[in-house]
Fold these 2 entries.
Entry 1:
Amino acid sequence: MSRRTRRLAQRTLLYLVLTGCAVAYIYPFLLSVGTAFKTDPDATAHPLNPVPSHWVLTAFNELGQADFLRWLANSVVVAVLVTAGRLLFDSMAGYALARLRFRGRGAVFSTIIAVMAVPGVVLLIPKFLVLKQLGIYDSYPGLIAPLITDAAGVFIMRQFFMSVHPSIEEAAKIDGAGIFRTYWSVVLPIARPALMTLTILSFQGSWNDFSGILIAHQSPSLDTLTTGVGRLVSGQLGTGLQYPLQLAAAMAMTVPVAAVFFVFQKYIMRTGEGAVKE
Amino acid sequence: MNLLPRRGSLRRQEAAAGWLMTVPAIALLLVFLVAPIAMAAWVSLSNWTGIGSPFASGVSSVGMRNYAALLTEPGLAQQQLGESLRNNLYYVILVVPLQTVLSLGLALAVSRKRLAGRGFFRTAYYFPSITSSVAISIMFLFVFGNAGVVNAVIGYLGAHGPDWFDNPSGVLHLVYSGLGVTQPPAALADHGLLGMPWWEWLAGPSVAMIAIITLAVWTTSGTFMLIFLPAIYAIPAELEEAAIVDGANAWQRLRRVILPMLRPTLFLVLTLGLIGTWQVFDQIYLMSQGNPAGTTLTPAYLSYVESFGNQQWGQGAAISFILFAIIVIFTILQRLMLRDRGAT
């Protein structure tokens, strides 16, 4: 075999493997979207075909009756407040830790690193205990407050500010702007890329959080999409399986987070390609 | 007055601002992360039943009894912990290497400069990472269902797929019986650890757990691919070119040039993988609730059920701390092992 044909064969093989993998990653989603529009018998009879034999909206109608809109509203409230809180608190703390000299800065930073190392699932019972103790268990503040700052976000912001040259802020300082003024009108605009990354991570993290929401409430009226849909599914496992309903719920709850992902994609998929950094 | 403030007062201003800006974050972290750990530590040593405050006068310390019931006293609690540790151990042993190799392979492939559809492939592989565990769990219940895609494909190949989520057989037990060993040797049946005979420890992951393992690898490989990519781009092109000039083939370049350069990232991915896999909870809660026959029970889920379900808060909290200890020990062990290999 000549060198050229061997290279061609190698390339073809690479594309075949990559496409095969892509099918394995995407096909389950296509199948789920299609099945959401099927009737129950159609879903079990043709599990491999994503196209329904008859398009029906039964699953979505049922979802509407099953408090889906209430869960959606709760998810939006939690995700928006958590994201806003993290953007503010994480960027402030990150900035202070990177730039301002104050006694105890090292200790604060070490605490944040230590907190990052604690595995989240280990904290389920502890978080429940503290919510009870504070009297905010089973309330909106109880859903939101534990998520509203995260050590990883503070860390990301600090690393970002460490990598930015302080010359612009120095200029603002010489012009007589105070520290908070500088932070608000000079620092935050510079930090746009890092804030974007933090926005996606926070929105995605709080929108998709299941276990944290699960242990923070018991009233069905406080269910977010994750716990609401989760309840719907585990409640139905015993009785007949309604795949279209379950998959409709799964796909509908994925749409907002997918939209945020596609809008801000470049901030997450930015992987240092071709850039000469550091 | 146009007098500039003196240097000392500027410093004080900066210190005050520094504290003001970090206080919200640090206070929230202390209240919702550090204080809870202390409270849970107390609960794990107490007989609190979930009624009222764990600090009320009726709640008293039972010393290490909750830990003893789990670790040293034969009984249901010990047996369940043993079972959950076995299940999770097989989960870790399979998921961590598979997701690391797969994500590295995907990252190497999509990092090629002349690859058509690079952006598409990346997005495709990463998309499951942004989807919630709830949605993914529903999809996999469907895909691995009795009449689902996986069994349909197995059917086309002429075999008969299992009832994935109802099948408690350990895959290693299936292999042993394939080799003709159906009865456990007495040595393995009569002795054991944590209330489980060695024969049961050697069962391997159950068929049901294999479905959940597949889900985990499928979901996380995209995330780790994204961690590998910047590290791959950071490898100087001259290094690979030099290896090509020296006549190294693709495999040699991977072993001798790329992998050594990726060592720190590999370490990060393995560490994150280990920490993450020991915490599997959502999928268990949503897909199997520890069934069938306890073969998908994990320590994280067991700790939740013991406390929130059975009101055995002391024991539930104790399981959390045991899990915490396991994660710390595994991380340290892995660090030592990788460091040793680097030294020789």
Entry 2:
Amino acid sequence: MTQIRPGLKLKSAVCTAEVMVIKAPAGVELSCGGAALIDAKAAAPAGVAADEAQMTGCEIGKRYVNADQSLEVLCVKPGKGGLAANGTVLTLKDAKKLPSSD
Amino acid sequence: MNISMFLQMAAETLPNRIALVNPDGRHSYGDLYAAAQAAARLISSSGCEYVALLDTSSEAVAVALMGAALAGKPYVPLNYRLTDAELGSLAERITPAFAIVGEAHLSRFPTSGGSKVYARRAFLETLRADTEPYENPDVDPSAVAVQLFTSGTTGKPKAAILRHEHLVSYILGSVEFMSAEEEEATLVTVPPYHIAGISAVMSSIYACRRIVQLPDFTPKDWLQLAHDEQVTNAFVVPTMLSRIIDDLKRDASLPKPTAIRAIAYGGGKMPVQVVQTALDLFPEVNFTNAYGLTETSSTIALLDPDDHRAAHGSDEPHVRKRLGSVGRPLPGVEIEIRDDEGRVCGPNEAGEVYVRGPQVSGEYLERNALVADGWFPTRDSGFMDEDGYLFLAGRADDVIVRGGENISPAEIEDVLLSHGDVLDAAVVAIPSVEWGETVGAAIVTSPGTAIDASMLQAMVKNALRSSRVPEKILFVDALPYNETGKLLRRVVKTLFV
């Protein structure tokens, strides 16, 4: 299991999704579509089955967080799988719409 | 975590959308990403440790910034207005450099220390032959993404460093990915070596908003380009906005920027009169005042379009006053005002502006300027009102200490500028035998008008108090500004010697 740390790029084992870790507490396990996220550079493992109930999708450019926002990941490639940490579904981070300032 | 992911995301999502327009052509996100990858390969194989850019705005600005990030090397844009000697001493501090240099400056970048110089046009041409992807290595989030030499009006310029984590925090916190519609275009006139020039490239790429570059600002060219490219957004420094307004008023034949929806301004103190005129002239445009520093990855506070309209239309003096405010902190950014003893000031109490947040670097190669708990002392002085709106009163170093009393130049300048025939005003400390320092004012009057100095002194006395009254008033043709609109107070001071 890869140690989750900021800057780490991970990909889904069951769909096209990729995420970038923005911040993460120790000992967290990330999954997409019910299967553990793997290192973005690793070869896709064969025979990993998606949990259909967790194929809720993730959207490019959206940030996903856990309940206390100690974990934050950015979706950098979209996919059909939904993101979860230690089995709990991550939610979309509310972003306040700001006017362009530069 | 690496700023190059902004371009990668845009290129993979909208490869054919136009990313950048300049006199040399139009470039899609796909083209730009291909060029950045080819640049990263050249940079990596060059053995150089820095990527320097010595040039006006061009496609190379985005390619060098993103190529350097992909290659994991600091990007160092240099000010082409510096003298050869100044430039030489900065170049010596970034060896060996992979230097991308505009044709006009080719002979000015020294190749000592193993630095390699690439002529901009030839460099961009070379990249087009290489369409292979470049594998983005795992760049440490704490690696330096950008190194900017401060303008350093005294002594040796400091090297401010911004790490990938700071810039990524800033962009993710302030820009929504792909939030721009295809027709949106932003006019960038800030030079590449200014933090606003760098953040404009990153913000626009992440929003997928077309960048329209104007390498050399004149009001006429700005208006023409805004018209031709149907520009919807722009960032200007205060002097640019007042020159655009002056020209529009003077010459009715100039093209009107009819497509423009939003104008952001910053980089120096904007006279309230100019904002008021702009709001009257462009009632449909959304104005945003952005306050930020190099050391904070650009914007940390902003006065948004609703704030502008509320202040402009209000009869309440404390709401109306906010047109002169830089607004409230960005989400994730904390701002505190502290007095000389380090105590946190209450509302409307003046002190030094401190800032903290994940986008704040506060670090120079020479030293880390952060104090306890990650707070960065900005050296700007100011206060916050009871609703959290920040008002700036100049640099902490510009405060005039008259007989032990601290006087902020800004409050006196505001009074002087309220005179209808005062076009511009700068208040500085001048040496005084009696007080240590006293107040001097340099004034620019409207063409063909003359103002009695004693009248201005009486105005200040009535509006403020006698200690604020300028002891000496000089009438000058123009005040000295640098090219990004920063008033050069040290030069103003020399006028009084």
